[in-house]
Amino acid sequence: MSPRFRLGFLSHVQGRGEDPKQAYRDAQELFVVADELGFDVGWVAQHHVPLAGGGLPSPWPFLTHAAARTRRIRLGTAITVLPLEDPVRLAEDISVVDALSGGRVEVGVGSGGSDVEYAAFGRDVARRRELTTEGLAVLRAALSNQEVGAAGFTIQPPADDFTDRIWQGVFSGTGAAHAAAAGSNLLLNRAAYGYDEPTDEVQRPWADAYLAAWREPRTPRIGLSRFVFPAKDRRTALAQIGDDVHRAALRFGERGGFPAGLGVDEALRRFHSFYGHPDEIVSALRAERVLPVATDLITQFNPAIPDQDAAVRALELIATEVAPALGWKPREGAVT
Asked: Where is the Luciferase-like domain (predicted)?
């Protein structure tokens, strides 16, 4: 792994449904906690329908609020579903948040894949890869302050340099090579769907294909998203995450992403879960096959929805015990 890798966390802003507004407040609080602990990047995932695994349809207003409450942590999307966005309007939102945050924005995009979401926005889900490629070309041009949409039109405020701040989420070696050819950083998901092999065995060739196809003069970045939930012991962690992960795996089974009817242990394996005492997690992560080539470790709790106190404690353990044991150092001034 990179000798000074960046540590991130990813929120899907997904509560239990009793009070959706509380889920937003809780997620904002995690950004504040992560900023204080020295996390390098805070990411959010965009979902327009809850069945897709999250509750945040509009990430940029959310990140604007997070920017006002934090000082140093970078702010990113992993991912924005690009085919459902107007890329010019998206570029304007990105540039505004970047200006307000002092240049802290990272932009992760992808194609998504929810039939319901595509139908709701009048897009053809069968064209999602083509639409992503087309939209990304326009987004890049807009963030480079080139004319887009009409002669003489450029976005305002003028964007700062986003050359090394655009990421693509992919689900294949071909997609990874395509992201490299486009000059995008790479985002790898917490789990590989549709495979029986362990996620890291599936994804390592994708990362290798990305690195082999990279032709830019700057250093490529690989963001590795992983389910990481430390607690005082494995039993305590399982009490917080087990039922949620199991239910999520059963839902994925209904949609074909996982085999149907998985038990809890197999559900945790399919989601490539790292949980338990920090020492156990460190040992497991040291054996992770993709981690040695990653530049960013992006931890997340989804599909689990732990209570807020447990989530805060897990962030603390990640920042003070797990990540430092892997070589990460918090920035100066972080609360340890």
From this structure: 10-264
Q: 242: domain CATH number?
A: 3.20.20.30
Structural domain includes residue 335: no
Phi, psi of 330 (to 5 degrees): -70, 155
248-284 residue pLDDT tens: 999 999 988 999 999 999 999 999 999 999 999 999 9
Distances 121 to 47, 112, 153, 187, 228 between C-alpha atoms, Å: 13, 13, 25, 25, 33
Question: Per residue in 200-256, pLDDT tens?
Answer: 999 999 999 999 999 999 999 999 999 999 999 999 999 999 999 999 999 999 988
Q: Which two tokens stand for residue 262?
A: 């998985």
283 lies in some domain:
yes
Asked if residue 112 has pLDDT above 60, the reply is yes
Domain-embedded: residue 332: no
- For residue 8, CA distances in Å to 92, 133, 225, 293, 313 come to 25, 26, 9, 16, 16
Asked if the structure places residue 336 within a domain, the reply is: no
For 277, the token pair is 């005492």
How far apart are the two ends of the chain, measured CA to CA in Å?
A: 23
User: Distance between CA 100 and CA 95 in Å, rounded?
Assistant: 9
Provide the domain count of the chain.
Answer: 1
Site of tokens 């809780």 = 26
User: How far apart, in whole angstroms, are the C-alpha atoms of residue 73 and residue 104?
Assistant: 7
